[in-house]
Structure formats: C-alpha cells, structure tokens
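hi support,

uploading two proteins for the ticket. first:
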Amino acid sequence: QVQLVESGGGLVQAGGSLRLSCAASGRTFSTYVMGWFRQAPGKEREFVAAISRSGSNSYYRDSVKGRFTISRDNAKNTVYLQMNSLKPEDTAVYYCAAQGSIFNLNLVQVPRPYKYWGQGTQVTVSS
C-alpha cells in the first residue's frame, strides 16, 4: 500500500508560480512511476505530467510544456510539480498518482493504470 498526500495548492494570479508536493508513505516509492493529473469542475480528469522511477524520464501534456516541471526525490519519498507562468485555464484540483510499471507513454497518460491516488489539492489561478 502507498498513501499519497498532496500539498502546495492555493490561489495565485495569472503569471505566478506554485510548487506542488506529493509525499508518499512506504519504502517502495522509488519503484513507482509517478504522475500528476488535474480535474476542473465539469471536466474529466486529465493528464499533466509523469516521471519515471529514477527521474531520468518525464513527459508532459502539450499545454504545460515549458511551464511545468515534474521532479522527484526518492530519498524523501516525494514528487514535485513546479508550475510557472500559470494561466486561468490551469485552475483545477491537482492529484498525484502512482503506478508500478515501466515508463510507457501509452500508460502514463491515462488514469486507469495508476493504482494509488492522493486526495488532491486545489489550484486557482485568477486573471
């Protein structure tokens, strides 16, 4: 079992920055591919970014490329999402998730393969 707890959300003006953190319980954090998803009101949950077990590979949805950076610290059992140049359309509840698989681009972009999910943290970007 892995428990995930997100933090770092909040209210920020357009153009601002936030850093989300996701702390994982357990000693097997480094064996999981980690992802960030988001869900806006009335919309489906969508992929944001994913990172491989070692942190050497990452992948982003097109709309956040160049603005968001995913990273992880396996010694601290934590994955991060640095969000810069935020836009109102980034407003959503952000979730971190873990899946125990190889870093497969077809698998990291969809919710179903992820076995563990956090409770989410709200990010609101005002215009």
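and the second one:
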Amino acid sequence: QVQLVESGGGLVQAGGSLRLSCAASETIFSFNVMGWYRQAPGKQRELVARIDRAGSTNYADSVKGRFTISRGSAKNTVYLQMDSLKPEDTAVYYCNAKGIIDHWGQGTQVTVSS
C-alpha cells in the first residue's frame, strides 16, 4: 500500500511563503506523475502543479510564476514551494501519485490571511 504524507502547511500572511513536502513510502519514480492538488471549502479539488517522470512540469494558471514543484534528492519526496501567497490560495493541499491507480495523501491545510 503506497503511503503519501504531506507536511509544511500552516497559517501565513498574504505575500508570504510556505514549502509543502510530500514523502512517499517508495521511490516517486515508480509513478508516472506526481502532483499537488488543492480543495477550498465548497469547491472542487483542482490541480495545482505536477511533475512527470522526465521532470516536465505543469502549473495551474492561477499559480504560475508563484509556485514551484520539485523533486527531492532522496527520490521519495516532492516539494511545492509557494511564494507570494494570496488569500485565495487557502485550501487543503493534497499530494497525488499517478501509477496504475491514483494514490492520495491525507492533505495539509494552508491558510493565507489578508
């Protein structure tokens, strides 16, 4: 059973930064794509950023230029560096690993105050 554990969420003022971490129970290169999603209250879960096995990245338009997804040197960690945070970035952030099936972490809360 694949386990994904997110950490790094918290409360930050608008304009601040946070770095989220996702630690996987196996090498992330076992999966085709690693991604970060978020879900705000009353809204659907949406893709924030993803990175494929080759290292290609994609971002939601709303976070381009502010967020950066990367892989750790330990090969079982994915990060999401979030800069210039806005109140509308407030959500629960989930790590996702896409293989034969989707795997999800439990989520970490990010709250951005104005």
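thanks. also noticed: DSSP finds no helices and eleven strands in the chain.
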